[in-house]
Amino acid sequence: MATLLYRLGRFAFGRRHFVALFWVALLALAGAGAAGAPVAGNTSFSIPGTEAQKAFDVLEERFPGTSADGATARVVFKAPAGEKMTDAGHKAIVQDTVEELSDGSEVARVTDPYAGGGVSKDGTVAYASVSYQVSGMELEDSSRDSLEDAAEGARDAGLTVEIGGDALQTVPATGAAEIIGIGVAAVVLVITFGSLVAAGLPLLTALIGVGIGVASITALASTLELGSTTSILAMMIGLAVGIDYALFIVSRYRAELAEGREREDAAGRAVGTAGSAVVFAGLTVVIALVGLSVVNIPMLTKMGIAAAGTVAIAVLIALTMVPALLGYAGRRVRAAGEKGRPRGHKNENEERKPQERAQRPNLGTRWASFVVRRPVAVLLLGVVGLGAAAIPASSLELGLPDDGSQPTSTTQRRAYDLLSEGFGPGFNGPLVVVVDAKDSDDPDAVFRQTGDDIKALDGAVSVSPAAPNKAGDTATITVVPDSKPSSVATEDLVHDIRDAGADVKADTDADVLVTGATAMNIDVSQKLNDALLPYLTLVVGLAFLLLIVVFRSILVPLKAALGFLLSVMAALGAVVAVFQWGWLSGLMGVEETGPVMSMMPIFMVGVVFGLAMDYEVFLVTRMREAYVHGEKPSQAVVTGFRHGARVVSAAAVIMMAVFAGFIGSSEAMVKMIGFGLAIAVFFDAFVVRMAIVPAVLALLGKKAWWLPKWLDRILPNVDVEGEGLRSDAEKKGGSPDDDRDLVRV
């Protein structure tokens, strides 16, 4: 592989005009597709295999024309202190508002609070439900404006009015914080390279790659039903890995120049060595993201595949666009050790041999030497520290966000609180029980029996009479719990209703199914929990096999996987501490604490594993490169850090900055994932890869690189360290491009 990539790097360097034109044209094509694409609708949040989804499908079939997937709004009214919503004046205001709401072209129906039981027992709160014919993301701005104008009119008349539901749902904004993240990345690159041109290359190529990926997602969003967060997450991951991959190749290019190589040859060798690591690091990220499909949640599958596509583009751009731009940059990208020196001026460093310059101890060398001398102490400190950070994860509570998790400054959250105040906390999360009595002899009797059984359960505040369809074979029963939607008590009630439904099924052959947003959230959490272990096994197993091929070792991939588990558990602990316990919540902009999003653990496992393997591949391949060239195991660790520690550290800081930029998002899921990935990169890069990994390798010695002979014979030699470039070709006295019989794939 190293030789093929070497030739690709030389081709891109020499044919830079063609390569640059290709990527710019692809960016323009994707941009044009995105500009002309229809606006994407709301993502269909289907969860195959769950009872809540089965009930929803029954509703779609048996109650046609009800716009079950249409947007909804609850316009909540509260009377001034000491007054009632039943007062004649307030009643007239509400009825005028209901009439105004009914005039919308996209409105399906509006319920009158006074005719539909929408007034609280104490008379202080009332609500009108508005149902639309289209989803929240498809709703016209004029409909949202009409909704807000109607509410504002009631406010002007003296009532407190708030709006809940998904009718006001908009594409989440990520704010200017991500620009700050890119700015931090630029500063780190300038410090690392000492050159604006060299620092600008990774940023430029990463932005081109992300631009192509996000524009392609936008262009296909309507056709593939991609959600609004899909492009944001693809941008988050694609930008981070795009900068890092380009950073490693530019760094290796400068190192090759320092060895005295010609620029075209240096570009080829950079792509052949660092590029090989980029390919396998990218493969691990792609495996982890595409593996999300095993969870069988379409939305998560689409998010993973879209992000994986962006990562694949980042890899291809790093292998081709980076050497092409290096060709354009020419002498403006200097060799390592020549930062800030005027052109044509030689200093004493240039007169030294490359080996003498390499022996000057840098911070990475000094740190690795310390770890090699004190491996047990460093290992214990790292493991204990991550273990302590992981302790909050034992209190992990999972759920999906509702209006109760919105900031208190939003009208959705204030409407949620008003409904809880007037009707009880469970009113915001009603359960919809679907009774399918098509195969029963007496459907009406089944409906009554089911309602009576539910009324006998603890935790149900109210149970509505059964509402059958026109055929009379299916009915819905609305159950209001006495606890808030995200509570354990509500989850217990859902399970109790399902247990009671099993008894009804045994007696009458009727299916009793529980659905609604609350039941769907419970089912999603359970599905994700059940899928976590199979997903972890699949992703870690495939990546373990891949790393065996890369490192030709059993213990090094095993250590990499165990280190990842430590970092991801510590990161989950930090997420729980901030978003569930409220530690540093003000600093992170978390206005409301609550359960961690159900998909957070499995998404973090997928993404963090891929990113963790990036650092493992980039850092440890340098160590193996030194080891296979005759260095002792402990010295190989030091050599790997001398060449790779600074670049890996810079890459980690850049990735943390990019992820942390998304903490400023208004979308709770994006905010949480941005924080989780940023802290996970910190733990993995600076604790696991920079401390635990060298300590373990120092303790293992030669055993770290042990591989059974039978396995060594059957494994393909991918030459990720570029051994073919350094040995075979140089022994023949020519460049690798001159070798006709050298095939290392």
Task: Summarize the structure in words.
The protein has 26 helices and 11 strands. It is 63% helix and 7% strand. The strands form 3 sheets. Strands 6, 7, 8, 9 and 10 form a 5-stranded antiparallel sheet that branches. Strands 2-3-1-4 form a 4-stranded antiparallel sheet, sandwiched between helices. A two-stranded parallel ribbon has the order 5-11.
Q: How would the blueprint of this fold be written?
A:
Elements: H1 2-14, H2 16-36, H3 51-62, E1 72-78, H4 88-101, E2 107-110, E3 125-132, H5 141-156, E4 160-165, H6 177-193, H7 196-224, H8 228-258, H9 263-290, H10 298-329, H11 348-351, H12 354-358, H13 363-373, H14 375-390, E5 398-399, H15 411-423, E6 431-436, H16 443-455, E7 460-463, E8 467-468, E9 474-481, H17 488-508, E10 511-515, H18 517-551, H19 555-580, H20 585-588, E11 596-597, H21 600-628, H22 633-661, H23 668-700, H24 709-714, H25 723-726, H26 728-731
Parallel strand pairs: 5-11
Antiparallel strand pairs: 1-3, 1-4, 2-3, 6-9, 6-10, 7-9, 8-9
Helix pairs in contact: 1-2, 1-9, 1-10, 2-7, 2-10, 4-5, 6-7, 6-22, 7-8, 7-10, 8-9, 8-10, 8-22, 9-10, 9-18, 9-21, 13-22, 13-23, 14-19, 14-23, 16-17, 18-19, 18-21, 19-21, 19-23, 21-22, 21-23, 22-23
